[in-house]
């Protein structure tokens, strides 16, 4: 008698989700006798999502293609749920896996709940405990958590947050973060940039500062203050080069161009695909960002991170010493950046701190946990534990 396979559907819609879910999709495919993987994408982001799908050779079974010009949170939520309703009705999976904190994540979890399908939440338990920072991500995480059956917490801190909220310990698995799986599979010391500008930078003799900004709460004057501080740094340090993949949001681009446009040794470029970005990160000296994911990726590569936010849902890196939360005040950004450029001891302390986010085996733990919970493997998988 042939055993029926578990049908596991992964749902994601943005580039960050795709990067972190790709290793899970590839891991699910390693168990063809036990698992039937199904991939559904909302394409909440279109072009950036497609880049990651191509890199990891993932072909979605369902593509809702919901992205529209000027889309609002209401638009994304409604279109994602309408599309996923039909997909779930057709596929009837045994479990849906969603990731992190996007609107697709919440919409996927809620739609699965309406179909009474079990939900697995990858990167569960991150919290700032401020519902509007970051917005809407913090509430997307909490609402998704309330709908989740299996919580795949990347760290012990995330696990503690879930326990504090009353989640059954038996439903929590500490896995490490899948972004480390993706990163370690992508960074290559022999990688050659196809972009002439990136290929022409001397990463040995220059101190390259990688900058990214996109958060809603930083739009306007907060971003302007950051860029003014960067301008001061570049003028003071002749060996510094800034590489800034500028977000496509016109509200970001307008301020970037007014403060940094035309400045010598400041390279304003379009957003990079994941492979060149990961390899640029590996060759940078330090990072200034308001991104969540980069707070996890950079420590795995020994790169100090100055976080341009007042709160973070990733306190582990702060505790480990790989990340410093500095906000957007011009003087503070200048002072903290200058310290890492001039203070070798301070730099080494951050660069050599232990990475708290993973060991490259998170996806394997997630799939093993699903198989164990469904009675298809003998033992509960071990937890990721920071050294």
UniProtKB/TrEMBL annotation:
Annotated GO MF terms: UDP-N-acetylglucosamine 2-epimerase activity
Top-level taxonomic group: Bacteria
Record flagged with keyword NADP: no
Keywords: Isomerase
Every UDP-N-acetylglucosamine 2-epimerase domain range: 34-370
Protein EC: 5.1.3.14
Isomerase keyword on record: yes
Pfam family, one: Epimerase_2
UniProt xrefs under SUPFAM superfamilies: UDP-Glycosyltransferase/glycogen phosphorylase (SSF53756)
NCBIfam families: wecB (TIGR00236)
Family designation: Belongs to the UDP-N-acetylglucosamine 2-epimerase family.
Protein name: UDP-N-acetylglucosamine 2-epimerase (non-hydrolyzing)
């Amino acid at each position: 008698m042939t055993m029926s396979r578990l049908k596991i559907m992964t749902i994601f819609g943005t580039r960050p989700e795709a990067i972190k879910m790709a290793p899970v999709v590839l891991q699910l495919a390693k168990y063809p006798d036990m698992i039937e993987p199904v991939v559904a994408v909302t394409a909440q982001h279109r072009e950036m999502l497609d880049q990651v799908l191509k890199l990891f050779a993932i072909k979605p079974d369902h593509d809702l293609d919901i992205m529209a010009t000027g889309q609002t949170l209401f638009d994304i939520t409604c279109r994602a749920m309408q599309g996923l309703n039909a997909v779930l009705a057709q596929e009837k999976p045994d479990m849906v896996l969603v990731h992190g904190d996007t609107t697709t994540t919440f919409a996927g979890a809620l739609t699965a709940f309406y179909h009474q399908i079990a939900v697995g939440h990858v990167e569960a338990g991150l919290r700032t405990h401020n519902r509007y920072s970051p917005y809407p991500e913090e509430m997307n995480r909490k609402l998704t958590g309330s709908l989740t059956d299996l919580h795949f917490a990347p760290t012990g801190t995330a696990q503690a947050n879930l326990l504090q909220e009353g989640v059954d310990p038996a439903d929590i698995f500490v896995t490490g973060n899948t972004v480390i799986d993706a990163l370690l599979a992508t960074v290559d010391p022999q990688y050659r940039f196809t972009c002439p500008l990136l290929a022409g930078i001397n990463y040995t003799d220059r101190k390259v500062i990688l900058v990214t900004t996109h958060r809603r709460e930083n739009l306007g004057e907060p971003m302007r203050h950051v860029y003014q501080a960067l301008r001061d740094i570049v003028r003071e340090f002749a060996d510094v080069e800034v590489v800034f993949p500028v977000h496509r949001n016109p509200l970001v681009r307008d301020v970037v161009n007014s403060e940094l446009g035309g400045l010598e040794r400041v390279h304003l470029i379009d957003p990079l695909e994941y492979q060149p970005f990961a390899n640029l990160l590996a060759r940078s000296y330090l990072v200034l960002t308001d991104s969540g994911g980069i707070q996890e990726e950079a420590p795995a590569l020994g790169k100090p991170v100055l976080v341009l936010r007042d709160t973070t849902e990733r306190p582990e890196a702060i505790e480990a010493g790989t990340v410093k939360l500095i906000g957007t005040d011009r003087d503070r950004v200048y002072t903290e950046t200058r310290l890492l450029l001039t203070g070798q001891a301070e730099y080494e302390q951050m660069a050599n701190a232990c990475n708290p986010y993973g060991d490259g085996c998170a996806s394997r733990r997630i799939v093993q946990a699903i198989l164990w919970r469904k009675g298809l493997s003998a033992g509960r998988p071990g937890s990721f534990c920071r050294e």
